[in-house]
Amino acid sequence: MLEIINVSKTFNIGTINEKKALNKLSLKLNPGDFVTIIGGNGAGKSTMLNMIAGVYPIDGGQIIIDGVDISRMPEHKRAKYIGRVFQDPMMGTSAGMQIDENLALAFRRGEKRGLSWGIKKSEKELYKEILAKLGLGLQT
Ligand SMILES: Nc1ncnc2c1ncn2[C@@H]1O[C@H](COP(=O)(O)OP(=O)(O)O)[C@@H](O)[C@H]1O
Ligand SMILES: [Mg+2]
């Protein structure tokens, strides 16, 4: 599913601020795996996630999702293969849009966009069903 092979990242190479954040990191996740990454402040957790999402280019190694090598793929193209939720929910959502509109954006990840009706009625029902499971009253 997700495979990280020997991924390295050093920030500010050749300067006094040079910092090796990841040194030949390898990790393999299979479908259904639930993994928590723990480590002290500055251990490289965020850097690892940024490398997977494509925020910064990696220095070496490979990142593969479902057999597709995304190592050199720009962030916006990787969005087809990987999603990310931030600790601050406002960073991953459009605050000016309705909940169902936000869900519709996520639902269409990686699909071709065209001009058609925004959210179908059947979709609205699906979102309501999913939201109800959270027990937060968001479906109303
Ligand atoms: N954009 C950056 N520029 C320079 N150094 C960075 C950058 N991002 C992270 N670092 C450095 O890389 C190391 C790992 O940081 P980070 O991945 O943020 O750790 P964590 O999320 O585990 O606290 C730290 O020493 C941090 O200062
Ligand atoms: Mg962090």
How would you summarize the topology of this molecule?
Elements lengths: L1 E10 L7 E11 L15 H9 L6 E6 L2 E2 L5 H4 L20 H9 L13 H12 L8
Antiparallel strand pairs: 1-2, 1-3, 3-4
Magnesium ion binds next to helix 1.
How far apart are the first and last residues' alpha carbons, in Å?
A: 35 Å
The Rg value, from CA coordinates, equals: 18 Å
Beta percentage is: 15-25%
Figure out the total of helices.
4
Protein structure class: alpha+beta
**Bound small molecules, deduplicated:** adenosine-5'-diphosphate, magnesium ion
**Main sheet record:** 4 strands, antiparallel
Count the E strands: 4
Shape: elongated
Mean pLDDT: 90
Task: State the CATH superfamily name of the largest domain.
Answer: P-loop containing nucleotide triphosphate hydrolases
CATH class of the largest domain: Alpha Beta
Report the oligomer: single chain
Walk me through the structure.
The protein folds into two domains: 2-78, 3-Layer(aba) Sandwich (Rossmann fold); 89-132, no CATH class. By secondary structure, the chain is α+β, with helices and mostly antiparallel strands. A four-stranded antiparallel sheet has the order 2-1-3-4, with helices on one face. It is elongated, with a radius of gyration of 18 Å. It has four helices and four strands; from the N terminus they run ββαββααα. Adenosine-5'-diphosphate binds at residues 11-12, 19, 21, 39, 41-47. Adenosine-5'-diphosphate is lined by residues 11-12, 19, 21, 39, 41-47.
Question: What's the short story on this structure?
Answer:
This protein has 140 residues and is of the alpha+beta class. It has helices at 45-53, 75-78, 99-107, 121-132; strands spanning 2-11, 19-29, 60-65, 68-69. It has 4 helices and 4 strands, in the order ββαββααα.
